[in-house]
Each structure stands twice: as structure tokens, then as C-alpha cells.
From TrEMBL:
Domain SET intervals: 31-275
Source species of the chain: Glossina austeni (Savannah tsetse fly)
PANTHER family: GH11294P, SET AND MYND DOMAIN CONTAINING, ARTHROPOD-SPECIFIC, MEMBER 4, ISOFORM A
Residues covered by the MYND-type domain: 4-40
InterPro entries registered for this protein in UniProt: SET_dom, SET_dom_sf, SET_SmydA-8, Znf_MYND
Keyword Zinc-finger: yes
UniProt protein name: MYND-type domain-containing protein
Taxonomic classification: Eukaryota, Metazoa, Ecdysozoa, Arthropoda, Hexapoda
Keywords: Metal-binding, Zinc, Zinc-finger
One Gene Ontology molecular-function label: S-adenosylmethionine-dependent methyltransferase activity
Amino acid sequence: MNPCKICAAETKNSCSNCKQIYYCCAEHQKQDWKSHKTNCRPFKIVINDVLGRHLITTRNIKPFEVLIKEAPLLRGPSQATPPVCCGCLNAIEPSDYINCERCGWLLCGSECKLKSEHKYECELTVQRGRKVNVQEFTNPHPMYQCITTVRGLMLRDKDSELWQKFITLESLENARRDSMQWKVDYETVCKFILKFFNTTSFTEDEIMRVIGILQINGHEVPISDPPHVAIYYNASFLEHSCIPNLAKSFNKDGHLIIWAPGAIKKGDHLSICYSDSVWGTGDRQHHLMQTKMFKCECARCVDVTEYGTKYNALRCEKSDCDGFILPKSLKDWHKEWICDICQSQVDKGYVNNILERAGSDLNAMEKTKENCIKYVEHYKKWLPGQHYYMCEVKIHLIQQIGKEPKELITISDDELQKKLNYARELIQLYEILAPCK
């Protein structure tokens, strides 16, 4: 039992969010909410010159505790998408859709036109004076590249409270300005919006800033098919780490849930992975530089062995050596690689040739059980079993062996053992590399 903050009466009822303050009744909690709400969350926003705004814990966090649960500030189709319903954001079948009677944009059904997000592109299209006419169902569809940006822009005049939150998020305009992505966005989204909607309501700078906010802060939300993009205000301040201390998921309404797989100490920085933690370091670094405009220097990225797993390593090219080839230096990741036993060196061209061939074969391959087994057998000459390409194939193989319940009756002991061995191997590996996945 603990004392009620208002009247000091003994009670066991705590604030349902922070679990730190106690109230004997709902009326006393309501009475204290104005002063308590700023301290209620288990984190606070802080700022420094290196990280900008970021989150640190205000108390110890227990395993599996939810730290953030929030509705999207803005959501819409991904920039590269086929035609989708402007209400529910699911893919449109060419033979099964309706057009919004006001603007012509595609909808699944009449109930989807009531979705609040659609009103923004609908209104701007009505102002244009001519309905949208979607004839092609290509992917990506050029007209759909603009919708989420338009929704962000329309907040300025239609919802000032959300706009003030949205426009303060990081856009990294200066870093993006000279990038190839900036040029692509300027041509395919910015100029398209100004011409297609025949509008002077927004400047090029405003449009490019909104595009940047979406690119830097957007989350891929997998509750629609295809996934859509959404902005979540508090989650936008979470740092990146390739070994994060938080995991994320989404409920059926598209609300983001950020939770802690393990304990976190008071004062610790809070992080999620902006990339895919099962990718190799080179792929993660490339993705982060292309999409988030920074080079990651987390503990995993500065360790060429990736915590001793040698997840990126190749086998030594010498037939009489059991060593692994890894980058000679983090600063020279794209230059010489060296064997950890015989110290022989190879240039990055040799490494690239193997990885490009292995990656190309993997992408082109139909992921059947037979093909996966052949892939592992063929590439084990160059790739150790824990290499990220081999791990991807093993995941497919685990899923294919005994896929149908009736197969488990007839499956051979050797195949079943292979499935179990690969599963144990991958669990052990990813408990090190992706504990929050």
C-alpha cells in the first residue's frame, strides 16, 4: 500500500501509465493530471549537439514494459507504391474499386471515403478543377508518389496543432540537398505536385521539407498490403542503433507500440533500429546513408567481427586455411580484406564479385527446399554458415522442411535434424545480433 498523492490515504492503485504515483480514486488522479502528466512518461526528450533531440529514461524500465503507444500523426501511401485505396491504403484490384465522386481517387468502397486522411488530397484535387483518372496499375505509380506529401502539406492550413508538431521534426534538408535522392524527389514529387494540382499554395522549399520529414521520420507500417508509411511524434526522437534496446510493433489500428525486450536503466538512451538488424554491416550502412543521411557508429558497426559472429566474413581463399576474411580496418571497409589466421589479403573486388554473385543468385532463386539446399552446398566454398546470405537461405529452408503438417509424418530423420540444427543455430546467432527483432 502507498499514500494517495492528493489525500495521503493508503491505496494500491497507481497511475496506469508510469506506475510511480498512487491515487485512491479516479477523481484524485484527474485532479492531479495537469501537474503529473509531464512527469508521467518513462522517458524525456533531451537535446545535444551530436544527437539533436533524443529520448532517455526517467526511471528503470522492466522487461516487456511498453514505453510508447501512439496513433500516427500522419499516414499515407509509400512513395513507391501501386495504386492503393486512399482510405484503408490496401492495394486496389483493377476490376474491383470505386472512384471518389468528388475527386476521382480510387477507393475500396464507400466506407473508405469517410476516412479522414483522404480529405486532404481530395480537397486539393477539387481545387484543381479536374478529377483524377487512374488508368494504369503499375508499381510504382507516379501519381501516388505525391499523396502522403500532400497530406503533410495540407496540415498547415487544416490542422495547425498537428502541423506545429509535424513541421518541427527533423528533415535534414542541408544534408539531403546535394544527394541523388533530393534530385529524384524534386523532379518526381515536388514539381509534380505544383504542376498536377496547378497550385501556388505551397513553395518548393515547403514541399521539399515535408518530403524530408517523411523520409527521415517515416515508419513502414505492415498492417496494410502493401505497407504504408506513417509519422509518430514521440517515436521520431528515438535514436538508431543496430543493437537497439527497444522493439516496435503495430496494432490493427496502425498505432505504434514501442516496448522493451529487456531491462533498461534510468538515464539510458532509448533506441530502435532504423534499418534491418539481420542485414550485414555493409548493407545496413548503405541503407542508412541513403535513407537517413548518416553513418552508423554503434557498437556493432565499429566491430568488424559483429560481436564475434563474423556475420559478414568470407572463407579464406587458400584451400589449406580455415580462416575467415574480414575488412582489414573499419576505415577501409571498402578496401583490403584480411584472413584472421594466415593474414593473406584480398582486395574488395574479389569480395564484391563473390557477394554480388551470391546475392544475385539468392534474389533470382525460387525459394524451394531443393533450391535452398543446392544454394547452401554451392556457396559453402566461399561463405561460412553464419554469413548473412547463408542465414537467409537457412530461414527459408527451415520454413520449407515439413511445411505441411502431413509432411512431418513422412519427413526423414536427417531432414528433421537439419531443420532443428539450423533453427538452433539461427536462434543463437540472432540472440546476439538482433535481440530486439
